[in-house]
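Hi all, long-time lurker, first post. I run a small reading group and we've been trying to get comfortable going from sequence to structure in the token notation. Rather than ask abstract questions, I figured I'd post a concrete chain and ask someone more experienced to write out its structure so we can walk through it together at our next meeting. Sequence below, copied exactly:
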Amino acid sequence: LRMQVTSYDALCLMVSAGLGVAVLPRGSAQLLRGTLAIRTVTLAEPWARRRLSLCVRADESLSSVARLFVEHLRATAYEDGA
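-- Answer (accepted) --
Happy to help. Here is the structure in token form:
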């Protein structure tokens, strides 16, 4: 059985209630681990690594704040081409 929920909070509440297991970002799990009866296990498998991309229509169409944000992300991106 597969279920879909609208938030990580709801997902962790279901796990805490014994309704299954979940895969979610480490940060979200750590926030909720202290208040709910859940245990976290870090996934160390290659399939668990994610590659994220930032998409914009065109740099010129960005507001000045958005452009600064994009420049910051580009400057701090990983060396492996992320």
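A couple of things your group might point at:
Helices lie at 8-16, 26-33, 64-75.
The mean pLDDT is 85.
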